Amino acid sequence: MSKRAIGSYSSAWRGLTKIVVPPLVYSLTKHEWHGQDNIRNVPADSGMILAANHLSYADPLPLCLFTHKSGRYPVFLAKSALFEMKGLGAVMRGTGQLPVYRGQADAALVLRDVERGLRDGACVIFYPEATATRDPDLWPMAAKTGVARAALATGVPVIPVAQWGPQKILPYGSIRPHLLPRTMVQITAGSPVDLSAFEGQPLTSKVLREATEVIMKDITGLLAGIRGETPPAEPYHPAIARRQARQEARESNDLSITDAPADQAPDGSGTIGSDPIGSDPAASDMTTPRSATPQTASVEPVASDTGASDTPASGTGATPT
């Protein structure tokens, strides 16, 4: 594989990670792996995509080892902030990982580097969700379409990968890892995703969304096999969840206004009734009319922490990571 396959990298850095990462991961986790032949069956000089669900900041290292033991060196799409961290940034750059700059007009340019690398034989790992899942039950959520774009533009195989266990080591949002006892991390790679229905079609938003949904369906199916559970019929969608939360807040506020006591004074003037401030003569004009517009509770948006933005699948944007 040429160096151009993953951009500028150092063979020394890569060699060092092959020495350091395996014992580190083995010391922190137990593992149960399946489907590595689906990766090994792809010719060594051919590019490929591993599309995996994202549970935790702890899952890249076990996935690195899984990929390495399957015969390929992993190249991740990672948020640019990681490249600016002292120590870690040198490792990321030295091993040829790809930075994704969020909130910039040229964020999608990383896909050009990805496509170039795939054509030259790189093994690129995408987290199609672009961030750790926000699904309350940790199923894959609606994904971004960058993975479909890269696959359809280059024709390389997409190997779906499901993982389960890293969220026990470092739950999303936590800064305290649970290192002992060692956690079982289960990883399964499936057969290449069948994207033949989309071959030769223009890369429209509709095509990219549908192709992404096919990829995510395979990943979710693998995860269901690991967990022995039935996944939801529709993936969790953060934007829809936010809208529902706002609607529920409005309805709750409307209900509280409707149910609020409003005692009527004998002379017909408005009073506060049983409200404590009703005893204050100055409060006699403070009655809240029923037609008053209720205030809605604001809901903070969920920020995505990795991946380059692109067209949404099932209504979301699409990114590699």
Describe this structure in words.
The chain contains 9 helices and 7 strands, in the order αβαβαβαβαβαβαβαα. The chain has 321 residues and is α/β, with parallel strands linked by helices. Strand 3 (74-79), helix 4 (88-94) and strand 4 form a beta-alpha-beta unit. It has a 7-stranded mixed β-sheet, with helices on both faces. Helix 1 (11-28) packs across helix 3. It has a domain at 11-227: 3-Layer(aba) Sandwich (Glycerol-3-phosphate (1)-acyltransferase), CATH 3.40.1130.10.
CATH topology of the domain at 11-227: Glycerol-3-phosphate (1)-acyltransferase
* Coarse structural class: alpha/beta
Taken from the alpha-carbon principal axes, the silhouette is globular
What's the CATH superfamily of the domain at 11-227, by name?
A: Glycerol-3-phosphate (1)-acyltransferase
Query: How many individual helices?
Result: 9
SSE topology string = HEHEHEHEHEHEHEHH
**CATH classification class of the domain at 11-227:** Alpha Beta
Percent of residues in helices: 25-40%
Give start-end ranges of low-pLDDT stretches. 1-6, 265-309, 314-321
Could you report the average pLDDT, rounded to the nearest whole number?
81
CATH architect. name of the domain at 11-227: 3-Layer(aba) Sandwich
Biggest beta sheet attributes: 7 strands, mixed
Cα distance, first to last residue? Answer: 22 Å
Query: C-alpha Rg, in Å?
Result: 25 Å
SS strand fraction: 5-15%
Number of strands: 7
Instruction: Give the spatial strand order of the biggest sheet.
Output: 1-7-6-2-5-3-4
